[in-house]
Design a protein that fits this description.
Blueprint: E1 14-20, E2 26-35, E3 46-48, H1 52-57, E4 65-70, E5 73-83
Parallel strand pairs: 2-3
Antiparallel strand pairs: 1-2, 1-5, 4-5
GO molecular function, one term: DNA binding
């Protein structure tokens, strides 16, 4: 079965992520877009595809929980929504 591109996290996907605490409760939500390294600008939510969090998120779908590193800190993220990027 083939899913439409925007249902799977890929480069240029715009994501709504929830950062979860140790009890899997939402601490904060953030917008995150995976872009090619040359187009990255973390100040506006555009993160390079080579970043550990980006690599960990690629291929996931809505509802998945991903344990990764973000800003040099171990985090647990839940994919809340996936949209098409630029």
């Amino acid at each position: 079965m083939t899913l439409p591109k925007f249902l799977i996290v890929m480069v240029y996907s715009k994501l709504l992520l929830s950062r979860l605490n140790a009890f899997d409760e939402v601490e904060v939500q953030l917008e995150y877009q995976i872009v090619p390294d040359y187009d990255a600008d973390p100040a506006v939510g555009r993160y390079p595809e080579s970043a550990p969090a980006s690599q960990a998120l690629l291929g996931h779908v809505t509802g998945d929980i991903v344990d990764t590193e973000f800003n040099y800190e171990a985090v647990r993220l839940r994919v809340e929504a996936i949209g098409e990027g630029d």
